[in-house]
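We were asked to recover a plausible sequence for a given structure. The inputs and outputs are reproduced exactly as logged, with field labels preserved.

PROBLEM: sequence recovery
POSITIONS: 130
GIVEN STRUCTURE:
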């Protein structure tokens, strides 16, 4: 498996780890029979963790498809790998800014992450011109 393919797995782990600690530490008030109960997420930090978790789920499909498309179209693997690692770093920083309630920085990081995804997605075009 390539580094970028491992990064796909890493993206899944990242969005799972974003919410898991809050469910574990709130075990007395978290009801697994009602995992989406808004009352559990009414505490601000838990609510932000849920938001970061959901955003991780939302960004995952584009990231995974961009990686696979770039690899299937024989784009330079070192660029795919480097951009995939960079994406994970930006996403980790995004989660921290979300949890830390820094909305402006969070938006900037989201935009950078999206640009990285777009760059991976369009890498096959680069191959044609090199």
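RECOVERED SEQUENCE:
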């Amino acid at each position: 498996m390539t580094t970028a393919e491992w990064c796909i797995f890493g993206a899944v782990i990242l969005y799972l780890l974003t919410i898991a600690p809050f469910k574990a530490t709130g075990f007395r008030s978290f009801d697994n029979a009602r995992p989406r109960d808004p009352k559990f997420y009414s505490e601000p930090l838990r609510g932000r963790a849920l938001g970061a978790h959901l955003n991780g789920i939302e960004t995952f499909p584009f990231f995974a498809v961009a990686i696979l498309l770039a690899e299937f179209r024989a784009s330079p693997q070192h660029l795919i790998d480097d951009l995939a690692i960079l994406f994970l770093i930006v996403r980790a920083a995004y989660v921290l800014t979300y949890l830390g309630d820094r909305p402006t920085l969070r938006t900037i990081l989201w935009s950078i992450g999206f640009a990285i995804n777009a760059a991976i997605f369009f890498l096959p075009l680069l191959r044609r011109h090199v």
